[in-house]
Amino acid sequence: MDDAEVALEWLGPHPTLVSVRLGAGGPREDVLLSPAFCNAHSHLEYRGLLDAIPHLDYWPWIRELTRRKAEQRLEDVREHTHLAAYENRTTGVGLIGEHSDRPFSGEALHEQGIQGRVFQEVITFLESQSPQEKLDAVRMKAEAQREAFGGPVHLSPHAPYTVDPETLAWLGSLGEPVSIHVAETPLEDEWLMRGEGDIEALYVRFGVPSVRHSGGVVGYLAAKGLLRQGSQWVHGCALNPSLAPSLAEAGVSIAHCPTSNRMLDCPDAPVRTWLDAGICVGLGLDSAASGGPVDMFALMRAARQTAERRGECLGVAEVWNMATTMGAASLGFEGWAIAEGATLPLIAVTGASDPEGALRAAPQDVAWLTPNGVS
pLDDT tens for residues 17-32? Predict the structure, then answer.
């Protein structure tokens, strides 16, 4: 967020920063040059459910999402996935951590030239006694995604309670990058530690053997090999703040989704504590079904508001870092920053005469840097 004089060289699709001279001063336009935004957690395939589900608490909302998802036609989902990728690109997003159950996000990201990772979701709740056939089907989807995307695609557990314990441990043992929904609400600890709550009731309803762990969701995931470097935990709203140093030491990153969390009445995430502990935190829009339209500026403002409700503070530079450089690092992409020698997509935010002004901007204020200027 400093004044700087930047020299660029175009040798490929993205500029290389030949030199960066901070504090150059002198007359300048009201333009903020920034790394492209990183949407650290996304579900492109739910674009068709924008404004479709009424305001509900998390558990009835996720059950309604599951019901509506089963009713969708795949040709419509494909169209919506491409639309969501286009909306991300046109609003300045150049890097995405994409959770995908259906097989269309890879082709949509490739079409828009968006970098990132596709996390092909593994869900074996109903197949807990014999998950192999389901795993084979997910592998086939992942391979199709990899071919269409041309970027990294990983098998990844959806959530602690939607994957059987053996498969969860197997995914943890692979050592690959993973992204998993964790502690969006206190329900996971209620289930694991006390055998209570909506998750336990779901297991009973379907006759699925339940799971217990005295260490709650953090202890459970540690036992399954998912408390480690390369593991991105999504949401984390109900994580005990006192565990932040342990998560930081293990190298876990977190995707914070404040607009989605607020809509679903999730607890306010302890982001200030995470950052102070050294955890790498990115900002995620989640899905259109809960996070609304693509707007990284609204997301940054929401992150600050979440901290304020906890009586804490996030600075403009901090939330901008979470939406760009740190968000990229949360997905394992280093060097997504304004620095000499870096090669990355850049955006210009017009009308931004100061940091607070940049945060008040809107998606239409974003332009992409090209060899011919901005577009």
Answer: 887 765 545 445 678 8
